[in-house]
Amino acid sequence: MIHAILKDKPTKLFLGITAFFVANALIAECIGGKIFSLEKFFGMNPSNFTIFGQSGLSFNLTCGVLLWPLEFIITDIVNEYYGPKAVRRISYTAVILITYAFVMFYSAMKIPPADFWIGSKQENGIPNMQDAFGGIFGQGMWIILGSLTAFLVSQIIDVTVFHKIKKVTGEKWIWLRATGSTLVSQLVDSFVVLFIAFKIGNGWSWQLVLAICLVNYAYKFTMAIVLTPLIYLLEKQIERYIGHDVARKMKLAAMGEESD
User: Fold this and answer.
1) Start-end of H helices in the chain
2) What is the dihedral of CA 241, 178, 211, 219, to 10 degrees?
C-alpha cells in the first residue's frame, strides 16, 4: 500500500510542495534578522519620504520578504488543486516546525560554549563567536510571535478570499483569485506582524506602525503583481506532470471542498 501511495503523482506533488513551503518559510524567518535597502540594491539613493508625519522613511526591508511572496504563490497553487483544507494543513505544519526550530535555536544559544570556539574567528574580525551566534539566531520573542501569528492569520485569509473568488469565477481568471487573495492577505500580514512585534512589544506609535506597514505593503503589492505569471507557469508544469484529466478532477474536487 505504501508503494502505491508514493507512486501516486498528486501525492508526490503534495509532499514536494509541502517540503518546499516549510523550508522556504523557515529560511525566510532565519534571514529575516537582516535589514537591507531596496533602493541601494538597485543602485539608487534612499527615498526619504514622509507618511503619517513620519519623515526619513525609505524602503528598508527584511531579507525575509524576498521569500514570503513565494509562500503565497504556493498557497494559491495548493488551494487550486487540493483545496483550503490542504492549505490549512501545510500552514499549521509550517508554524509548528518553525516554532520547533526557534526552540532549538534558543536552546543552542543557552548551551555553554567551548572556550576555544569563542575566539576561534578573531582573525576574521569576530571577537566572540557566542555573541555572534546569539546575534544571528536570538531574535526577540515579540518579533517571533508577531511573525508566526501574521503568517497563520494571513494564510487563513488568503485561502478564504481565494476560494470565494473561485466560486464566482470557476476555473477562469486564476490571476484574479491568486493576485486578489494575495493583496488582501499581505495587507493583513504587514499590519499584524508590526502591530504585535513593535506596537505591543516595543511601544511604537500608531503613526510609525502604519507608515512602515504601508512601505512594506507597497513592496508586497508590487511583488504580487510581478509574480502573477509564475502562477501560470507552475500550473502548466503541474498539469504536464499529473496529466490534464487528473488536474481537472483535482480542481473540481478542491472547488467543491467545504471548509472545516
Assistant:
1) 2-7, 9-31, 38-41, 68-81, 84-110, 115-118, 129-137, 141-169, 174-194, 206-226, 228-242, 244-255
2) 40
Q: Cell numbers 513592496 label which residue?
A: 219
Using CA atoms, how far apart are residues 132 and 37, in angstroms rounded to an integer? 22
Sorted by where each starts, the structural domains of the chain and their CATH numbers stand as 2-35+43-111+129-255 (1.10.1760)
Give residue-wise pLDDT tens across range 112-131: 999 888 888 888 888 888 88
CA 231 to CA 77: how far, in whole Å? 7
Pairing between strand 54-57 and 49-51?
antiparallel
Cα distance between residue 210 and residue 194, in whole Å: 9
If you ran DSSP here, which 8-state letter would residue 124 be given? G
CB contact burial 168-206 (16+ within 10 A = b; e otherwise)? eeeeeebeebbbbbbbbbbbbbbbbbbbbbbbebeebee
Q: Report the candidate in 245, 222, 68, 240 with the shortest Cα–Cα distance to residue 158.
A: 68
As a whole number of angstroms, the distance between CA 248 and CA 254 comes to 10
**Residue 97 confidence (pLDDT):** 92
**Given this model, what pLDDT does residue 18 score?**
95
Per-residue pLDDT, averaged over 173-180, amounts to 78
